[in-house]
Write a structure and sequence with these properties.
two-stranded antiparallel ribbon; ten-stranded mixed β-sheet; D-Maltodextrin-Binding Protein, domain 2; alpha/beta; globular; about 40% helix; Arc Repressor Mutant, subunit A; single chain
Length: about 325
Amino acid sequence: MFEIKHLKTLSTLAATGNIRKTAEKLFVSQSALSHQIKDLEQRLNTPLFIRNTSPVQFTAQGNMLLTLANTILPKIKETMSELKGKNETTIQLKIAIACHACFQWLLPVTEQFSKQYPALKIEFLEQVFPAQNHDEFADNIDILFTDEKKENDNFSYHELGAFEVVAVLANRDTIDSTSLINKEFLEADDFSKQVLLTYPVKSDQLDIFKLFLHKESNRADAHKHNKHQGITIKQVANSHMILQMVAANMGIAVLPIWLVSSLSKQSLVQTKRIGKAGIYKTLYARYNTHNVKVDIIKQLIPQTIAAFSHLNINNSKH
């Protein structure tokens, strides 16, 4: 009549309180999860929870299954640990991130993945390090998450998804008489005389310079004054601080659009396309196909793709 997956779904639904968060936890779409629950209710010929309640309220029949889930699932987990624990050697998966903004969404994915494999230990070697130093760490890294792909470096690059890099501004006029707020997109000149809030790396490693300002400078007349030297760069430790400072009108920033989504929904900041065509990048998982842990790596990657895709879906709804 019902399966272990149904008990896991009900247990997670009780913990999160709603379908959307349950779908996120289980790495499935909301429609797929709703279909699974409706199928179970049809099998049992009874509703399991009351629709449109927040947090979700279970029916008497739903509570019966939830009680069963809370009894059985811990025993299953305990038994699996006993079966595997004595005979299974701990697997250490070493991960590095060469994308400052990625740590925020990647950490929950790896935490969830670790719960699925009790014998797996995930270690983050470096949250961020310069792109040119990747090869120095190659022997110690099982997976590198990066938004730069090198050709012919003997590694496999698995594409996780594409994303747009945008300018982030306070959701109000700046002191400067030339407001950026009403512009459809920002041009190179718009960055001059601005305070640019960035991660603590060299300017030539920042997307705004590599992918936009330097290119615009090369197109300009060589005899003209460098229009970008008026930019004041202020380095900030992490993404959260950058966004809070932007919201406080202490400068502008250039970040992946999915990182800005939550604050923009609260109307604390707004985003602008950079250049008429915009700046787009692709995120990759890089690994050695001859790595002895390649099977576990290939199991993690689909979950990172699902999580990254969910970020983009949420942003497109905004």
